[in-house]
Structures are given as C-alpha cells and as structure tokens.
Amino acid sequence: MFKVLIQLLLLTYVIIMISYLLELKKYNLNGFIVDCKDDDDISNNIDKLNPLYFKIPYNHTVDISDTEIFFKNEDQLKEINFDYSPIKVLLADKYLFYNNSVTTLKNDDIFKLTCNFHNFNILSILSGECKIYLINPKHKKEIIDKENKEIKKWAHIKKLEKYDNILIPTNWYYFIETDDKLIIHHLDIDNYFTIIPNFFKNKLL
Asked: How far is Cα 140 from Cα 20, in angstroms, rounded to an integer?
C-alpha cells in the first residue's frame, strides 16, 4: 500500500512537472520592456511574460578586486552582502527556489549572449552602469551563433545603473555592454516542478 502511494505521488509530480514545462515554452510574441513604478505594476505584469524594469534600494556591500572578472559565479557571494528580500517579497510564494550568483565586467569585456532557462531571472545592478539588450525568443533563429553587434537590431534596449533591476522572462535572450566597472547580482527563480529540468537545461544547453 505504501509503495503504491509513493508511485502515485511520483506519477502526480511527473504529470504536474510536464504541464509546467509546457507552460515554460510559452512567450509573449509582442513582448516589450515594461517600466514598473511600484509593487502593483510588477504584480499586474509578471504573468504577461514581458521583461520588467523596476527600482529597489536594496542593501549591499561590495568587496571585489578590480582585476577579477567572472560570469554567474556563486563563490564570490561570500564577498558580497546582498539583501534581496525586497525582491522576494514582491514575488511572494509563487516561485519557491532562488539561486544567487554574481557577474563582474569592466570596459569592453564581452558578455556573451545568454538565454534565461529559469522561470525568471532578475538582474540587479550593484555597482556601475550598463546597457542591457533583451531579445524575444521569436528571433532565436536569427541570433544564434552570431556576434552581439550583429543581433542588436532585434533587441529591446534599457540603460541600467545602481539599484536598477530587470526581471527577464523564461526563454528570453540577453547580453550586456558597459564602459564601467560593473557588478551584477543574478537571482534565478524556479518552482518545485521546474527546478530539476531547468537545472539540466542550464548545464546541457
């Protein structure tokens, strides 16, 4: 009886996981960057699968060498005290798993084209200024295996500075340019049913 119950629970989990994965294939064909002025704007727009821009005066201290450059590094978090609880409050309990990492860039360092495979990825500017180029998944065939300068014509562009945040929906592509010393905090967001497949997508794709 106990074995049967476990099997039923696993089957239920797999069925729900598949339904969520099918949902993650969806994207807004007419998506654009929405400037959110308050929490209500974020709550009202998050399910429309548009990239969302918002400001939060979060607390952090930064202590990273000027010579270090890395992409989505988790080890460096011990050198950054970043309180992202205001962001988590905005999302309430809708998405339950959060993974933190940090990227640093300076001047003309190349930020390669990246696809967000998570339910959402939030980029928060801890230091410096930059431009982010966000590209709708409908342009995938036109942008893969090309240099950043060749794909800008398909991008939605937003200038970012300290305390600025961009919430990137699943499947959207992005890259960043800066003439500054830039420190970015990444918050990858998944739920109970997408964390496992999203983990493998990030590792394999």
From this structure: 22
